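Reviewer 2 asked us to include a model.

Predict the structure of this chain.
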Amino acid sequence: MSEPAASACPVGASVVLSEQQPYLKTADAMPMLRPGDLVSAGEEGEVISLLPKDQRGVRFRRGSFVVPLTALQEIGSD
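Predicted model (structure tokens):
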């Protein structure tokens, strides 16, 4: 695995969902799948946890979901 991905989007970072997801997995103790239209592309959220396989737990307006790092863009990153 590459090291830059591990430091991308740390906990507390503001992020934008760059691409619509077909479905979303909740970032709860008992996760479940939810429809992808709960969070639209371009919606802002905050990283709340770092997860295996380059995924992040992100809190959006309509809940907290597990999102792949490739679908996130950090706000203010240069």
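The chain has one domain: 3-37+46-74. The chain is about 5% helix and 45% strand. We have added this to the supplementary material.
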